[in-house]
Amino acid sequence: MRAWQILRHGEPADAIARVECAVPEPGPGEIRVKVEAAALGLPDVFMCRGSYAFRPELPFTPGQEVSGTVSAVGEGASVSVGARVMGVTAFFRGYGGLADEALALDASMYRLPEAMDAAEAAAFVIPYHTAYLGLLTRGRLLPGETLLVLGAAGGSGSAAVSLGHALGARVIAAAGGSNKTELCRGLGADLVIDHRSVDLADAVREATDGRGADVIFDPVGGSAFDQALDCIANEGRLLCIGYASGEWRDASTRLLVAKNASVVGVFVGAYRKPFLSDVHEALLEHSNAGRIRSLVSRQVAFDDVSDALSELAERRASGKIVVSME
Predict the structure, then answer these.
(1) Preceding amide of 59 cis, omega within 30
(2) Angle value at C-alpha 122, between 156 and 71, nearest 5 degrees
(3) How many CB atoms within 10 Å of residue 305?
(4) Which of 120, 193, 201, 312 would be a feasible disulfide site paired with 230, CB 3.0-4.6 Å?
(5) What is the DSSP letter of 214?
(6) 149 and 119 in contact (C-beta within 8 Å)?
(7) CA dist., res. 250 & res. 242, Å (int)
(8) How many C-beta neighbours within 10 Å does residue 168 have?
(9) pTM exceeding the 0.85 threshold for the entire prediction
(10) 58-99, pLDDT tens digit by residue?
(11) CA distances from residue 130 to 12, 70, 261, 309 in whole angstroms, order as listed
C-alpha cells in the first residue's frame, strides 16, 4: 500500500518520503481503517522533527486524524467491518493516517454520519473534542462570558471560536495577519485581534472595559500564554491546550492569587470512551444544526503531503489541510 513515512528526523521536506509498505494487521482492541481523508496538524511536523511527545521507532507513518471505512477488526473490537468512522489513529505506534490503511484503537474511533463529508470528518474529532472539553468540561464557559481564543485560525483554535459562538459566549479571536483574521470573522468571532499589529493584552482590556477575558483558550503557549495571563478577568480560567509555539510556560502563583484566576490543563486522552462518545454525539447535534463546522481550508492530493507539511511548519497555513486519498 501507499504510505508516507518519516525516515529520519528533520524538517518535513527532508524527513518524510512516500514509500510502499505492507498493510498492517489490527491487534486486540484495534481496528484497521481504509482511509478516505486524513487531516494534517502541527503534531505531524513535530513528529518529523523528533520533538513530539510520541516518538515511534523509525521509519514510521504519522497522521493523527482520519475518516474512512473499517476494513478489519482485532479481537474485542466493538465496531464492524464496513462501518464509517472518524477519529484518531495509532500514530503513536507508527501506523498513522498518511497511508491507504491505518490502524486505530477501537476506543479512539467514533460514528461518522452518512451526511458528513469525509474531509470535514477527518478534521472534526481532535479539534472539536478538544474545544468541547476545554470550554465546557474544564472551562465551565457560560453564555454571555467573554472567551479569548489564541491561535484562532488554527485547527483547535478555529473549533473553539465556532463552538464558543454556538454556546452564546462573546468571542474574541486572536490571529496573525489579515487572511487569518478574516477567516475568524467568518467563524462567528465578535471581535478579531491581529496580534502582529497590536498588543494583545491591551486590546483585550480595551475591548472588555478593563475587565479582561473570562475564559482563555490557549493552544499556543510561549509568550502568548504570558500575554493571556496579563488580560485574564477576575475568576478567569486559562485553558492550556497545547504548545504550538514549541514552548510551555509556567504561571506566577502570586498573579493567580491576585486575580482569583485558574490555569486549567486540558487533555482529551485522560477521558474514557463512554464519556467521549456522549461528547461526540453532542457535537454532532451542533454540526447537524449548522452551528459548527470543520474549518477545512484546503484539500490536497496524496502526493502533496510533504509540501503541505512544509507549509504547516512555516506557519503559512490556516484551518486544517486535509489529504484526500482519492
Answers:
(1) yes
(2) 145
(3) 24
(4) 201
(5) E
(6) no
(7) 13
(8) 13
(9) yes
(10) 999 999 999 999 999 999 999 999 999 999 999 999 999 999
(11) 26, 24, 21, 22
